[in-house]
Write a sequence for this structure.
């Protein structure tokens, strides 16, 4: 019973997120809005009900399984990508690397500077 | 029952979601075992090995993707509540978040902007068409945001969907080697950079090993996705001025 209730809470917040984004024509996906709403409610009530904690951990730990149906859609695009495979592949590999590196570098610089600051 | 009814049995099983649902979960469980046996070798990332095995099975059995997707829609649907559930690890990280909100907002803005600019630049340099450029722009954002953005810019949604999926897998594959090579050892740095570049797939991978990394990755995916959408009109204007579109 508590697990079902926790699952219900997750669905309810997704529904609320979906509803609010549609109502105010905000182009943010409903699940992300629902996640921010739930975070807000958790902050206000200062804690997580144990059942919600358990249900969420279970669902999150198998997030990768949930992506398999969508990622398998790659098989539809084999032909479409043949003609422009080089810019596609290059964009994928190099741009993802650059994004990852630049983001990590910025934040890492901050942590380093703070550490130096602390030790002085 | 005569042996000739085997074809009929197959046809019946194919018409219920049961068969492909079981196959998908079985493949995933197998992929997890392989991953564990290989000491979490990133090249054997469960999403990657599962999808390869699955696509081979689909091609061999002659099952169209649309038919497969219709049977496993249930799994796909659960991405919604699972995304909402990411609020829980985020809540656990709240004290750290309060201390770090300023450097986090700066690096997330820079990260989202870098994602857009680097994607446009590289695709253009390698001779990609305007349509390819538009379709690849939102590839570091999480799937629903990326598709909404492509809808707005007029790119090709199927290319965006594949690009988002491949970016997620690639970003998860290269993250640890990149962090190790450049000495980015802080778990918060690793989480944020993975979330910005490899969205939900990167988050799904991190959360299995470390809750701090996973939570910051979820946060980064959420904020960077929103920022990507916010920056998009400016980016389009810039691309038009440069005559890349």
């Amino acid at each position: 019973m508590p697990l079902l209730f926790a699952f219900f809470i997750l669905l309810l917040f997704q529904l609320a997120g979906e509803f609010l984004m549609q109502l105010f024509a905000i182009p943010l996906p409903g699940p992300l809005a629902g996640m921010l709403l739930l975070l807000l409610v958790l902050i206000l009530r200062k804690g997580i009900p144990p059942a919600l904690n358990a249900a969420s951990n279970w669902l999150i730990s198998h997030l990768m399984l949930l992506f398999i149906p969508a990622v398998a859609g790659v098989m539809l695009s084999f032909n479409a990508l043949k003609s422009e495979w080089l810019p596609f592949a290059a964009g994928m590999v190099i741009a993802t690397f650059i994004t990852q590196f630049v983001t990590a570098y910025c934040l890492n610089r901050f942590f380093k500077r703070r550490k130096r600051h602390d030790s002085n | 029952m005569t042996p000739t009814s085997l074809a009929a049995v197959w046809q019946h099983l194919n018409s219920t979601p049961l068969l492909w649902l079981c196959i998908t979960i079985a493949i995933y469980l197998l992929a997890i075992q392989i991953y564990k046996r290989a000491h979490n070798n990133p090249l054997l990332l469960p999403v990657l090995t599962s999808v390869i095995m699955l696509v081979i099975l689909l091609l061999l059995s002659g099952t169209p993707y649309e038919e497969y997707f219709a049977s496993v829609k249930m799994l796909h649907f659960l991405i919604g509540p699972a995304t909402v559930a990411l609020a829980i690890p985020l809540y656990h990280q709240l004290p750290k978040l309060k201390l770090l909100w300023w450097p986090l907002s700066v690096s997330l803005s820079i990260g989202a902007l870098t994602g857009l600019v680097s994607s446009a630049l590289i695709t253009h340099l390698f001779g990609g068409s305007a349509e390819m450029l538009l379709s690849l722009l939102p590839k570091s954002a999480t799937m629903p945001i990326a598709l909404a953005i492509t809808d707005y810019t007029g790119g090709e949604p199927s290319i965006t969907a594949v690009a988002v999926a491949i970016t997620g897998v690639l970003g998860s594959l290269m993250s640890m080697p990149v962090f190790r090579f450049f000495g980015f050892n802080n778990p918060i740095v690793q989480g944020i950079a993975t979330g910005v570049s490899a969205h939900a797939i990167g988050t799904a991978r991190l959360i299995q090993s470390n809750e701090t990394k996973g939570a910051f990755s979820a946060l980064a995916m959420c904020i960077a996705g929103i920022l990507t959408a916010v920056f998009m009109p400016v980016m389009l204007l810039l691309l038009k001025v440069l005559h890349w579109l």
